[in-house]
Structure formats: structure tokens, C-alpha cells
Amino acid sequence: MSAEEALKATYPGDELTFSQFRDNRRVVVPAGKLFEILAFLKNEQHFDMLSEITAVDYLEYEGAKDRFGVVYVLVNTKTGERLILKTHVNDPEPLLPSVYSLWKSADWLEREVYDMFGIRFSGHPDLRRILTPDEFTAYPLRKDYPLKGRGERHNFPVITRAES
Amino acid sequence: MAMKDVPDNVFMTSLDAAASWARSNSLWPMPFATACCGIELMATASSRFDLARFGAEVMRFSPRQCDLMIVAGRVAMKMLPVLQRIWLQMPEPKWCISMGACACTGGVFDTYAVVQGVDRFIPVDLYVPGCPPRPEQLMAGIIALQDKIKNGGTLNGTEFGKRTQPTGPAPFDLDELIRIREANEKLVALN
Known about the structure:
A: alpha/beta; two-stranded parallel ribbon; B: four-stranded parallel β-sheet; about 10% strand
């Protein structure tokens, strides 16, 4: 039984949307069921590797109902099977459960999503910024953040010849 | 005159010039290589191009043993405090080469995280253009810097005393100036 069929059998109803593009098999799940479904996939379907977490900002995207999409890429290391899960969260407080308890690789991946998009993960052991400096205040990959920043590049002391 | 008695292998010069000559021919570079320019820097030191011909090949990864910093590649704003600390740890007199478009001006990366020219925050003596520059260009740069040291150096490094301004240009992008002003106003409002 494929992972999709198992999901359909375990979570009947129309809340899961399945699709496929070339080799990519995708499932859209509601944010409320996210942790439960991921735990099911890990424990029952042997998706023992969380290869990626990333997010998409759908601000001003044609036809989009939600602001952020968060994408999980799971790998079954026994069969090589891959499954892509997507869920949606919204402003003003985008919040998802952390999957650190399922896959340890979620640690840095969730920190990166938090750093770049400002999506928080409840239950994450150490949710700090990872790519930008600690004192950074914005979320650079949000579409409403200017590409050139808001002057962050200039907040450094200037060292001249005379004083160094 | 007594000059007649001086043997052929002795020459007279000023102490400043002798020190500058010694310094210019024994540069110890600190490779601050962050990107593709760093690969060109490595190639410059390799046997194919052989930087050793010019007495500037003793790459040291401890700033305390270096007197020439080669900033090769783009510098992200998270990296700039590290760059400044390394510069301050290098003993005087010291020089800095900004290698490649990114180190000189930010290159094509006019984004929130990339420093638009390291010369805005640390003093730079010589710019090597190119994206990335070829090893020959870096060598030409080092030879030009050696000339500069030979001609302008002093025994105790006092030639740097008068340079109290940062060498880089002030930001000229109008949008950027507006954003900086807004950020400062917000900061004032927060405090």
C-alpha cells in the first residue's frame, strides 16, 4: 500500500488534497492535523528522514487564500520513496508545531524557516536565528521586505587607518 | 671622499627606504577568502602562477603573523564584524587589498545582507577589479602595492596617521538613504 493510500484510509474525508507533478507526489494537509499526519508517516510508513523544510510566501499571489505555505520533504530510506507535504499558515502569528521530536534534523531546518519567514514552531528546543545576525529584526524572505533591506548593512563601526 | 672606499656590494640609503624595501618584499598575506575570488587567490599561490616569485606567498591563517589582508569575495553583514576583528588583530604596519567586484562594491549582490564594499568599514589600499580577477591581475595588484609601500613607507608606519577618513564612498543610493533615515527614526522612537 502506498503512503497516499494509507493516508486516505487513515484520514478519511476531504481535508487532504493529493496531486502529482512528474515524480513529485504531494499532499496538502490542514495545519491542525500536521503533526499527527507527520507522526503517522514516520512511525507507520517508515518515512525516517526529514530532508527539507521550507516555506513559500503567497503574498499577492493570484488565487492564493493563505499567506504562507510550509513544505516538508520526507524520505523513506528503505524504499527511496519521497513525499512532499504542504500546509498553510497565516498572519499575524504564523505558528506550527515543531517536529523536532520526530526528526532531529528539524532543528536547523525550522530555525531557518523561522529566520527567513518568521514562522514560529512551538515546542522547538532552541528557536533562534540561524543565517542572519542575532540582532536582525526582519524576515528577509517575506515578499514585503525590501530586497536592499532597511539600512541593516550600515550598522557597523567604521575603522579608519588612524585608529587601527 | 670616503665614498671611494665603500665596496660595490654596499649601498647608502635612508632608514625609511630600507625598511620599506624590506617590507615590500616580504609581505605575508592573510587570505580572507569567502567566495569565487578565493579560488583565484588559491590559484595565484599555486605552482601554475607562483606568487612566490614576488616574495608574497607566505599565507598565514593567523592575523597576528600577517601584514597584508586580501579580502577575496563578497562579505555578508554577519561576516563583517569578524573581518573587522581580524583587521584589528593584525600588527602595524599593515595593508589591505580588496579583491574582486564584490569586495570592492558589493558586485551584483545589492541585497539586504551583502556589504556594499569593505572599504566603507575598513581601510583599503588597493582595489583589484574583476569578477573574479585572474591570478595575473591579483599579481599585478600585489606588485603595485609593493611599489606603493616602497615609495611611501616610513620606518614606524606614520604614513597612516593622517588617514582619518574611511576610504570608501558614502552610500549614494537615494532609496537607501531614505531607508536608513527611516530606520534611524524608528530606532529613536523605540528608545
